[in-house]
Write a structure and sequence with these properties.
The chain contains 8 helices and 5 strands, in the order E-H-E-H-H-E-H-H-E-H-H-E-H. The chain is α/β, with parallel strands linked by helices and 208 residues long. It has a 5-stranded parallel beta sheet, with helices on both faces. The longest helix is centred in the middle third of the chain and has 25 residues, at 64-88. It is globular, with a radius of gyration of 16 Å. The two termini are 16 Å apart.
Length: 208
């Protein structure tokens, strides 16, 4: 059985991750690679229920610490139930968001700090870190303009532009600190050009 890979996709709201996931799915199907797509928060029945609570636009009174702990709880379930078993089967596991989202959104944008977020995720993540993270680099101003504004039913998207600016700066800092793991892709380009960059990176890392 071949070695599996764990790849995560990160970026601000509207960065084009969903489009790239669809294009990558078609590419991997044609290549005959064994793969799964998953997401955070979510990916398993229990984690998907937690996702509903986190993103529900009605839960405006949720404390920042509660939000961070819910993400970590969903992640713990996701890793043990889906990510590790799939990788051990030799599959390419591609996840829409992971630990870097917690760093960018909760540690940086919410102001909870890296020490707190790392601390609560020690139990969730353990040694399950991505082999590669693709960061789709586009500012929130450009991203929201492209997608036509924030989703009114998504609590995080409704957090305001200043919040999302902090998210973006958090991602930029993470990309510098973990440059060996995080590959930065200019997401301002056309979807086809962005996908060319995705494939080039995956080939260089000998994942495909």
């Amino acid at each position: 059985m071949g070695k599996g890979f764990f790849i995560t996709l990160e970026g601000c709201e509207g960065s084009g991750k969903s489009t790239q996931l669809k294009m990558l799915e078609e590419y991997l199907k044609k290549s005959g690679k064994s793969f799964i797509f998953t997401r955070e928060p979510g990916g398993t029945p229990i984690a998907e229920e937690i996702r509903k609570i986190i993103l529900d636009g009605k839960n405006v009174e949720m404390e920042d610490e509660t939000e961070a702990l819910l993400y970590a709880s969903a992640r713990a379930q996701h890793i043990k139930e889906k990510i590790i078993p799939s990788k051990n089967q030799g599959k390419i596991v591609i996840c829409d968001r992971y630990i870097d989202s917690s760093f960018a959104y909760q540690a940086y944008a919410r102001g909870l700090g890296m020490e707190f977020i790392k601390g609560i995720n020690v139990y969730a993540v353990q040694n399950c870190m991505p082999d590669l993270t693709l960061f789709f680099d586009i500012s929130p101003e450009e991203a929201f303009k492209r997608k036509g504004g924030a989703d009114k039913d998504d609590r995080l998207e409704q957090s305001g532009l200043e919040f999302h600016k902090r998210v973006y700066l958090g991602y930029k800092k993470l990309a510098e600190e973990y440059s060996d793991r995080i590959a930065v892709i200019d997401a301002r380009q056309s979807a086809d050009k962005v996908f060319e960059s995705v494939i080039e990176i995956l080939r260089k890392r000998e994942i495909i």
